[in-house]
């Protein structure tokens, strides 16, 4: 853990506490190692525009961690989760660290980003994490939760992944400002059952999760 210092550990621990997360030392260590790896391998894999470790903590790690309590309320038990357009593995790798009960598949159309996620699965000893290289429209499988962060419009996210969601499954779209226009453009077959505002420690920006499911006919 060379790039991220002790000061960053404290920043992450304090942020996690503010979010009400009771993470173990091992999980904090995995998160810091992951943040360090993003910066270390950035030139090879083209993972992030950020260069400052403090910003990786707030904008990537804490921003993703802010969704963990909400995910726990919607999916308290085990299941299969797909993170679409995952890039460096956000939020999928953070979810895999915090929720070892879930099988987490990160998906991206860019092969080298998923090579990085697969590398993280080994380095961070996360046997239930996988990096999948494919376009979402062509993927096969069934998932209980499908997430995305900074991926696409809600319509494109839902249309592209509907074939992958179990009948009782839920979509978790991480967004900035509440996307009212995108919500209006969703098909009538999609039920937006909750829009949840998030506060990210150290980040002065609007964040929300749009929770959706298929309407039962
Ligand atoms: C803006 S990045 C967001 C990455 C990450 N979720 C984050 O929050 O930092 C969007 C990602 O979606 C991927 N992507 C775009 N279209 C895709 C598709 N049809 N199927 C899978 N991934 C796709 C891109 O390669 C890119 O890595």
From TrEMBL:
It comes from the Bacteria. Keywords: Cytoplasm, Methyltransferase, rRNA processing, S-adenosyl-L-methionine, Transferase. S-adenosyl-L-methionine binds at residues 85, 90, 136-137, 149. InterPro entries: rRNA_ssu_MeTfrase_G, SAM-dependent_MTases_sf. It is found in: Cytoplasm. Coiled coil: none annotated. The keyword Oxidoreductase does not apply. GO terms for molecular function: rRNA (guanine-N7-)-methyltransferase activity. GO terms for cellular component: cytosol. The keyword ATP-binding does not apply. CDD domains: AdoMet_MTases (cd02440). Signal peptide: none annotated. Its main location: cytoplasm. It catalyses: guanosine(527) in 16S rRNA + S-adenosyl-L-methionine = N(7)-methylguanosine(527) in 16S rRNA + S-adenosyl-L-homocysteine. Its EC number is 2.1.1.170. Belongs to the methyltransferase superfamily. RNA methyltransferase RsmG family. Specifically methylates the N7 position of guanine in position 527 of 16S rRNA. This is Ribosomal RNA small subunit methyltransferase G. It comes from Pseudacidovorax intermedius. The gene is rsmG.
């Amino acid at each position: 853990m060379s790039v991220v210092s002790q000061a960053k550990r404290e920043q992450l621990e304090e942020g996690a506490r503010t979010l009400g997360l009771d993470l173990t030392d091992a999980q904090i260590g995995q998160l810091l190692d992951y943040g360090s790896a993003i910066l270390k391998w950035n030139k090879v894999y083209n993972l992030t525009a950020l260069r400052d470790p403090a910003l990786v903590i707030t904008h990537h790690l804490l921003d993703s961690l802010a969704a963990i309590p909400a995910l726990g309320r919607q999916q308290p038990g085990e299941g299969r989760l797909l993170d679409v357009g995952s890039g460096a593995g956000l939020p999928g790798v953070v979810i895999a660290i915090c929720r070892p009960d879930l099988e987490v598949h990160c998906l991206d159309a860019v092969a080298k980003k998923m090579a990085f996620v697969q590398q993280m699965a080994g380095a961070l000893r996360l046997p239930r994490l996988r990096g999948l290289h494919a376009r979402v429209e062509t993927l096969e499988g069934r998932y209980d939760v499908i997430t995305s962060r900074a991926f696409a419009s809600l319509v494109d996210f839902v249309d592209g992944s509907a074939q992958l969601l179990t009948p009782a499954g839920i979509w978790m779209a991480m967004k900035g400002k509440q996307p009212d226009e995108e919500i209006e453009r969703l098909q009538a077959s999609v039920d937006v059952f909750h829009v949840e505002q998030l506060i990210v420690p150290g980040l002065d920006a609007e964040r929300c999760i749009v929770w959706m499911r298929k309407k039962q006919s």
